[in-house]
């Protein structure tokens, strides 16, 4: 029995633990309070202030907390540079270079990592072969591959690779099994920089296309000398670790070296990783975030003296994940409701992130605007002596002594005042403490929190963003509920509720993300209860208005259809109104299939299209306004894994959360 068929049998029943949960990029149970949406924001301080939502600001379960992360490289100009570091020159002794990879394409010679400078130099690179299907160790000293893998590295599958030199033998392990070995005696001692996902010294275009997670370089030790089982949890900095990266909520080297990282292009931090969470999503441990666009999305507090920070001590702390370059003066937040002076201006100014008194350059604390698509922990603090400081990811950026009167009485998230917007990204755990401070501005470094913050003494405002009625148990997406899309507790298949759509402008939309690049195997499945079976009704769409090159699952009358981007697969069986039915679509290799209640209902279709662009996702409608009328329960999207390739028994319980 094949791996795919075994998985179909093992996962169809639902509930319990899903061994392939690491491939789940969205899971919507639809459980919650009747009528709940994602549009109501709560203040968790004792003040319980009413928060006003502007634009399409929404909240969800994507947050900076949790341990399973990777870096995504789009295959076009995105890479990381760790600089010329002695500890990263492997020398003539033992070493281990290991990581998990998830390829979106088989591009020729796309580079995973290395310090290669040019031919006849004592440098190396790990990269794909000419066909892009295998991985190898390229030795600059001989200008040739020392090892090229025997095994093909599959697309859209997490694969562990480890290159290990023990004595004079270089070995390649794939998923813990020895793939090949060869003699290697080169002393890697050239003074060159280590790059991840590119080799700048060579021809343009050799960029990695896909994810890299838990890249570890151990110098002086052959960590593996025989077959082994790769770790099922994130790697740690064992003795001799020179580099440990691509495993955190931000760009950081977790080795004791803590090397600085230069980010280039669109590299992003993603929760998608080779490790499944061991616990289900919980607000107490993971929390949530708000997502704002660059137009007019803001959250605004009422005007209240609790936000008049005056001349005394205060602390403002939060996480931010910028997704785009903000407009001039657009900031994560500001306090300026009355005009004039007295506000805090924390925003983009001329490519810098400025913490300014009185909306001008008085007592300015500045840093270069941070790289996009990574979480950053921010603390702005002033003690009772008037010493003010700005911390970014636990490191103090600067200090200033002032007696400025921060007398404005309103906070705006996503702009510097209530009449402006323009800051695109996510914000998590926004807290304002008036009259005291936890962080000492005299400290040069502070500890970055690993769990959601709470309302300590003197907390004036605490926005945890965990009041979303429809949240993603995969912890990757914040869903905007449009129209009357909401929870229904009266019609449900499992749990306490389902997703309800009335067929006239109700849907949920998600921002574009690498999670929606369905380039390899995948599964889209859910339970549906349509209240009509006429016209075109979209269940899940992962394309945009300008292209059809991405999967779309929809109803056309009573037929279930999966659009392949070239030709649709139409069911021979039919969907009935006003009853629950399980529907699924899968891609396995180049084979597309659709299922109703576990039975394949359309001929297997071959489609070799390689999807290379990540679009947004729409649930309950399409970007062509093909609205669905009815209910959806337990919607699950699995990226990189075809759960069903033959008939199966539909799940008898809700899908597992871990």
Radius of gyration: 26 Å
Number of helical segments? 1
Helix content: under 10%
Instruction: Give the tally of structural domains.
Output: 3
Largest sheet: 9 strands, antiparallel
Overall pLDDT score = 92
- Share of β-strand residues: 35-45%
Molecular shape: flat
Number of strands: 46
End-to-end C-alpha gap: 25 Å
CATH class of the largest domain: Mainly Beta
- At CATH level 2, the architecture of the largest domain is Sandwich
Task: Specify the structural class.
Answer: mainly beta
Low-confidence stretches: 1-13
Classify the fold: give the CATH topology of the largest domain: Jelly Rolls
Report on the structure:
This protein is mainly β. The protein folds into 3 domains: 3-38 and 471-639, Jelly Rolls (Sandwich); 58-62 and 287-463, Jelly Rolls; 70-270, Sandwich (Jelly Rolls), CATH 2.60.120. The protein has 1 helix and 46 strands. Strands 1, 33, 34, 36, 41, 42, 43, 44 and 46 form a 9-stranded antiparallel β-sheet that branches. Strands 3, 19, 21, 26, 27, 28, 30 and 31 form an 8-stranded antiparallel β-sheet that branches. Strands 4, 6, 11, 12, 13, 15, 16 and 18 form an 8-stranded antiparallel β-sheet that branches. The longest helix is centred in the N-terminal third of the chain and has 9 residues, at 3-11. The protein is flat. The chain starts with a helix and ends in a 19-residue tail after the last strand. Residues 1-13 have low confidence and may be disordered.
């Amino acid at each position: 029995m094949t791996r795919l068929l075994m998985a179909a049998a093992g996962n169809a029943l639902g509930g319990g633990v899903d061994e392939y949960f690491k491939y789940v990029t969205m899971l919507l149970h639809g459980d919650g309070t009747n009528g709940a949406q994602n549009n109501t924001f709560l203040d968790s301080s004792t003040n319980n202030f009413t928060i006003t939502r502007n634009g399409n600001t929404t909240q969800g379960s994507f947050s900076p907390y949790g341990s399973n992360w990777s870096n995504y490289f789009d295959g076009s100009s995105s890479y990381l540079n760790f600089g010329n570091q002695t500890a990263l020159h492997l020398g003539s002794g033992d070493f281990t270079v290991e990581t998990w990879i998830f390829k979106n394409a088989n591009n020729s010679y796309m580079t995973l990592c290395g310090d290669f400078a040019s031919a006849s130099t004592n440098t190396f690179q790990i990269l794909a072969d000419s066909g892009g299907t295998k991985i190898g160790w390229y030795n600059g000293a001989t200008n040739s591959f020392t090892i090229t893998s025997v095994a093909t590295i599959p697309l859209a599958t997490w694969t562990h690779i480890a290159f290990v030199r023990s004595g004079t033998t270089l070995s390649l392990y794939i998923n813990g099994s020895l793939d090949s070995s060869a003699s290697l005696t080169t002393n890697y001692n050239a003074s060159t920089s280590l790059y991840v996902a590119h080799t700048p010294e060579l021809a343009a275009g050799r960029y990695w296309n896909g994810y890299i997670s838990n890249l570890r370089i151990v110098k002086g030790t052959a960590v593996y000398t025989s077959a082994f089982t790769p770790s099922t949890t994130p790697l740690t900095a064992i003795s001799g670790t020179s580099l440990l990266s691509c495993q955190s909520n931000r760009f950081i080297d977790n080795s004791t070296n803590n090397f600085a990282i230069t980010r280039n292009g669109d590299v992003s931090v993603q929760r998608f990783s080779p490790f499944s969470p061991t616990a289900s999503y919980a607000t107490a441990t993971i929390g949530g975030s708000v997502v704002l666009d660059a137009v007019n999305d803001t959250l605004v507090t009422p005007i209240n003296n609790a936000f008049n920070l005056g001349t005394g001590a205060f602390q403002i702390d939060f996480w931010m994940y910028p997704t785009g370059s903000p407009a001039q003066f657009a900031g994560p937040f500001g306090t300026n409701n009355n005009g004039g002076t007295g506000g805090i201006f924390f925003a983009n100014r001329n490519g810098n992130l400025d913490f300014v008194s009185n909306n001008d350059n008085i007592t300015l604390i500045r840093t270069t605007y941070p790289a996009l698509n990574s979480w950053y922990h921010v603390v702005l603090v002033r003690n009772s002596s008037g010493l003010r400081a700005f911390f970014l990811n636990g490191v103090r950026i600067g200090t200033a002594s002032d007696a400025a009167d921060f007398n404005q009485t309103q906070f705006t998230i996503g702009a510097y005042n209530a009449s402006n917007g323009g800051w695109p990204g996510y914000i998590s755990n926004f807290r304002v403490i008036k009259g005291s401070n936890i962080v000492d501005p005299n400290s040069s470094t502070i500890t970055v929190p690993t769990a959601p913050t709470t309302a300590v003494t003197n907390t004036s405002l605490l926005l945890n963003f965990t009041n979303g009625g429809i949240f993603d148990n995969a912890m990757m997406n914040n869903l905007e509920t449009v129209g009357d899309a909401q929870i229904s507790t009266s019609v449900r298949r499992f749990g306490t509720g389902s997703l309800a759509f009335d067929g006239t402008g109700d849907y949920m939309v998600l921002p574009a993300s690498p999670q929606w690049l369905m380039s390899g195997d995948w599964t889209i499945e859910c339970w549906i209860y349509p209240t009509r079976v006429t016209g075109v009704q979209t269940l899940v769409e992962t394309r945009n208005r300008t292209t059809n090159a991405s999967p779309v699952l929809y109803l056309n009358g009573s037929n279930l259809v999966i659009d392949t981007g070239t030709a649709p697969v139409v069911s021979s069986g039919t969907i009935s109104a006003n009853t629950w039915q399980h529907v699924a679509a899968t891609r396995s290799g180049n084979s597309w299939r659709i299922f109703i209640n576990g039975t394949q209902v359309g001929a297997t279709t071959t489609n070799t299209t390689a999807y290379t662009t990540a679009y947004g996702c729409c649930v309950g409608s399409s970007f062509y306004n093909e609205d669905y009328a009815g209910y959806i329960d337990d919607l699950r999207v699995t990226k990189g894994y075809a759960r069903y390739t033959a008939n199966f028994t539909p799940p008898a319980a809700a899908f597992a959360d871990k």
